[in-house]
Amino acid sequence: MLLCEIQDRGYTGGISQLKYYLADFKTVEPDPVVRFETPPGKQMQVDFTTISRHQRKIKAFVATMGFSRATYVRFSEHDRQEDWLRGIEEACQYFGGVPQEILFDNAKAIMIERDAYGEGRHRWNAQLLATARDYGFVARACRPYRARTKGKVERFNGYLKSSFITPLAATLNQAGLRLDVATANAHIGPWLERVAHQRIHGTTGIKPQILLDQERFELIPLPSRPQPATQPTSTRPVPIENFQHPLSVYDRLLEARL
User: Fold this and answer.
1) Contact assessment for residue 208 and residue 69, using Cβ atoms and an 8 Å cutoff
2) Residue 213 binned pLDDT confidence (cut-offs 50, 70, 90)
3) SS3 4
4) What phi, psi does 100 have (nearest 5°)?
5) How far apart are CA 146 and CA 144, in angstroms?
C-alpha cells in the first residue's frame, strides 16, 4: 500500500530499493545493560591487562572483588601460569580471605580446554586446581563473547591505566626515567589504599574500602600457612635501589605530584 502511494507521487523504483533506503532511518534499540551483582565474599574477578609504554610492554594482574569493587594489582613481565597463581594467592592474602569463586576468562595459561567434559565442565590447569583446593575456592570461566560477565575487573583496567599508569609514567619521564615493573609495584599499594579504594565508585555509589570492610567478614579463612603477600595494605613495597633508578628520585617525584 505504501509503495503504491509513493509511486503515485512519482517514485519509479522497486520495493527492494525502497527498503534499502529506509533501513538507514530505522531506530535500533541498544541491548539493555544487565548488571551482574554478587553478595559479599561470593566472587573475585581476575584478569591480566597489557600496559604499553615507549614500545615496551609490562603486564598487570588485576583482581577485583565483585561486591566491594576493591582491587589488588601486581605487575610482572609475563602472564604465565606462575604469574596467574602468584597473583591469585597474593590477592587473597591482600584481602584477608578467600572468595567462594574466582571468575577467569579463557586464558590458555589457566584453562587447557573449554567444555572438555561437557558444557560448563572445563579442563583446568592442574596447578590452578591444586591452588583452588588448597585455598577453598571454585574456578569459574567467563562465557565467550560475554565480556560484561567479567566487566568489573575489565572496567578497573581502564581506570588503572588512566589514573595510575599515565600520571606515574609522565612524572618519571620528566626525570628521564622509564616505567618498569619494580617501580609500578613500588607505588601501586599506596595508590590503591589512598586513591582507588577511597573514590566513590560509579556503580555502587560507595567507597570500595567501606564495602571491603564488610566483605572481609564473609571471606573463607586463608590456608593455615599462606605465603606472605608482597603488597601489604599498610606498608609500601619498594624496589631494590640501584644506580639507574635511585629510590630518592622516586620519592621526590611522588612528593612533587602530591
Assistant:
1) yes
2) very high
3) helix
4) -65, -35
5) 5
Q: How remote is the C-alpha of 235 from its chain's centroid?
A: 23
Residue the block writes with cell 611522588:
254
Q: Which amino acid is at 236?
A: R
What are the Cα distances from residue 155, in Å, to 25, 39, 49, 114? 33, 19, 11, 25
Is pLDDT above 80 for 161? yes
Residue 34 and residue 92 in contact, taking contact as beta carbons nearer than 8 Å = no
Q: Note the pLDDT of residue 15.
A: 61
Quick one: angle between helices 126-135 and 81-95, nearest 10?
10
Phi-psi region of 255 (alpha: psi -120 to 50; beta: other; left: phi over 0): alpha
Identify the H or E element spanning 185: helix 181-194
- Alpha-carbon distance 216 to 226, whole Å? 17
56-65 β-sheet, strand order: 71-76, 56-65, 43-53, 101-104, 138-141
The pair phi, psi for residue 229, each rounded to 5°, is: -75, 145
Most confident of 7-21, 87-101, 229-243: 87-101
Give the pLDDT band of residue 141 (cuts 50, 70, 90).
Answer: confident
194-200 long-range contacts (CB < 8 A, ≥24 apart) are: 195/163, 195/164, 196/71, 196/159, 196/160, 196/163, 196/164, 197/70, 197/71
**Does the pLDDT of residue 62 top 60, yes or no?**
yes
> pTM of the prediction?
0.72
